[in-house]
């Protein structure tokens, strides 16, 4: 049997299990999210250095709004930090294009504006693409598509 060791062009990662990981170790939920965030920060270098061209992260679904308010607030702070610092730095250092999709207008504070800024700043970058699916879900995607069809 032949082993071609083919590398996928596009890899999608669903961020899941941070709370479960923390619970199994008797740690606070927030620590699970923090540890997960640290792992996510390492992923682009690992995947792109192996030949992957597009990396998609599903980081916060529309269903996540149903969690405890303090957990949602913490996650929003992590997301803001990721967009403002980590993604921007990663894009500058490596010439990655950053695309952020989902219902951005429903995010708190200036997070929607920061998302749009980094998309604009990196639109010409071509070394690799990082998709961040934020406030995203299958059902809302269908609802939005139907509304758009009706409007047009």
UniProtKB/TrEMBL annotation:
CDD domains: Cis_IPPS. NCBIfam families: uppS. GO terms for biological process: polyprenol biosynthetic process. This is Di-trans,poly-cis-decaprenylcistransferase. SUPFAM superfamilies: Undecaprenyl diphosphate synthase (SSF64005). Keywords: Transferase. Belongs to the UPP synthase family. Z-FPP synthase subfamily. GO terms for molecular function: ditrans,polycis-polyprenyl diphosphate synthase [(2E,6E)-farnesyl diphosphate specific] activity. Pfam families: Prenyltransf. The keyword Electron transport does not apply. PANTHER family: DEHYDRODOLICHYL DIPHOSPHATE SYNTHASE COMPLEX SUBUNIT DHDDS, DEHYDRODOLICHYL DIPHOSPHATE SYNTHASE FAMILY MEMBER. Gene3D superfamilies: Decaprenyl diphosphate synthase-like. The keyword Nucleus does not apply.
């Amino acid at each position: 049997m032949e082993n071609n060791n083919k590398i996928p062009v596009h890899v999608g990662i669903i961020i899941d299990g941070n709370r479960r990981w923390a619970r199994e170790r008797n740690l606070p939920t927030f620590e699970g999210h923090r540890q997960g965030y640290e792992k996510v920060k390492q992923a682009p270098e690992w995947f792109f250095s192996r030949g992957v061209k597009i990396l998609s992260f599903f980081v916060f679904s529309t269903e996540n709004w149903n969690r405890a308010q303090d957990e949602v607030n913490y996650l929003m702070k992590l997301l803001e930090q990721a967009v403002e610092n980590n993604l921007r730095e990663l894009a500058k250092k490596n010439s990655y294009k950053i695309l952020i999709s989902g219902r951005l207008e429903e995010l708190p504070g200036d997070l929607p504006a920061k998302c749009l800024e980094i998309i604009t700043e990196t639109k010409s970058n071509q070394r690799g693409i990082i998709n961040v699916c934020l406030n995203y879900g299958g059902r809302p995607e269908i609802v939005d598509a139907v509304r758009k069809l009706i409007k047009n």
